[in-house]
Amino acid sequence: MWVTADNHIRQELLPNGRYDEARGGRESAYTGRYWVNGNHIEYADDTGFTADGEFEGDILHHGGYVFYREESPAHRKATGKDA
Length: 83
What we know:
Blueprint: E1 2-3, E2 9-13, E3 18-23, E4 26-37, E5 40-45, E6 50-56, E7 59-62, E8 65-69, H1 73-78
Antiparallel strand pairs: 1-2, 1-8, 2-3, 3-4, 4-5, 5-6, 6-7, 7-8
């Protein structure tokens, strides 16, 4: 699970090559397919929208947002829970 620091956007990258993204209280706000090549990810939303992103360890830069692997050290640091 990849989440923004405020947990407003939650993106689950499923092992079958699909993703499911929740925004706020809206579950499955966006769904579609994804592909990973090295540290690069490509998305194809079910509506036809495409996007991409870059992984840097436990951080994902995608669509102008910064996502963190949930509960990773990077996520705990971003949320102030690294104590």
